[in-house]
Specification:
Strand order of the largest sheet: 1-2-3-5-4
Shape: globular
Order of helices and strands: HEEEHEEH
Oligomer: single chain
Radius of gyration: 14 Å
Helix content: 25-40%
Bound molecules: adenosine monophosphate
Largest sheet: 5 strands, antiparallel
């Protein structure tokens, strides 16, 4: 059952943390990493993950690490709102495949929402790398 089980060290976010896979990094400190979702459901869709804990989901992460992740979620949400001026923002987190989880390293989604634009299909269409690079530069300027 995907809600329970062993942590797979080969999951894509573990590889990103180890530097074995690339990401459009937005923020990093010793404990937390934030980067752009490459299959975004909206313009600016970003992810925030803990770096030091091998937790698949919210059941497994310790509350101190979760609090550090959430502090970065708030900081990133503010930067996204300042830069992209969305009409709303969704902060979401899924636990287990039936709940929509596809990567089994806990992560928070930060999804800007724009008036009249419906949410894209989850983890489906890959964004244009040039567009992601431009967006990364805009957000880094805000976060810096
Ligand atoms: P979830 O379905 O909640 O597990 O979310 C996983 C998210 O990770 C989805 O929104 C995917 O689009 C995203 N994703 C998968 N692979 C990558 C990657 N290599 N870089 C950035 N985002 C990714």
């Amino acid at each position: 059952m995907s809600l329970h089980g062993d942590y797979d060290e080969q999951n894509i976010f573990a590889k990103i943390i180890r530097g074995e896979a690339p990401c459009y990094k937005l923020y990093e400190d010793d404990e937390v990493l934030a980067f752009l979702d490459v299959f975004p459901q909206s313009f600016g869709h970003s992810l925030v993950i803990p770096k030091q804990v091998q937790a698949r989901n919210i059941l497994e992460i310790d509350s101190a690490s979760l609090a550090k992740v959430m502090a970065v979620v708030q900081r990133l949400t503010r930067a996204l709102v300042d830069e992209l001026q969305p009409a709303g923002v969704q902060v979401a987190q899924f636990n287990g495949a039936p709940a929509g989880q596809t990567v089994f390293h806990i992560h928070m989604h930060v999804i800007p929402r724009f008036t009249g634009e419906s949410l894209g299909i989850h983890a489906s269409a890959k964004a244009d790398p040039a567009e992601l690079e431009q967006l990364q530069a805009r957000l880094l300027a805000r976060l810096g």
